[in-house]
Amino acid sequence: MHDEWFHTGDQGEVNVRGNWRIIGRIKNLLVLNTGHKFAPEPIEDRLAQFLPGAQHIVLTGNGRSYVCLLVTGKVDSTEVQSAVDAVNPELPHYRQIRNFKILPDAFTHESGLLTAMGKIKRDAIAKRYDAEIDAMYQRKVTA
Predict the structure, then answer these.
(1) How many angstroms separate the CA atoms of 55 and 39, rounded?
(2) pTM above 0.70, yes or no
(3) Strand 97-103 relative to strand 67-73: parallel, antiparallel, unpaired?
């Protein structure tokens, strides 16, 4: 408790009726080098609606100037691009996905990329796929 608030580490938003909804975890916030901060989970969830064959969808961008995407599962680049094209217009410019990489292997608990509850470990994924993530930011990207 702090100032009569119970601090859980969750990030929420309030709707017009005054009801709160959990949208992510504070520790999962992406922080771009532009200073923009946002929870990736709502965008990842929206992408999942367009990518039923995807096993895992992870946004990247900490310390970078734009957002990229890692995807595992039975998807091809055309499907992923279509999903990105469907979701990007709904997002502010700093949250729009500029590049993506389809990874050949699913994330597992045994590989250290998922928790025992099946949640993704963002830091472990960023470390394991550092070269692939760097490559996404090396390619010339159009805004």
Answers:
(1) 20
(2) yes
(3) parallel
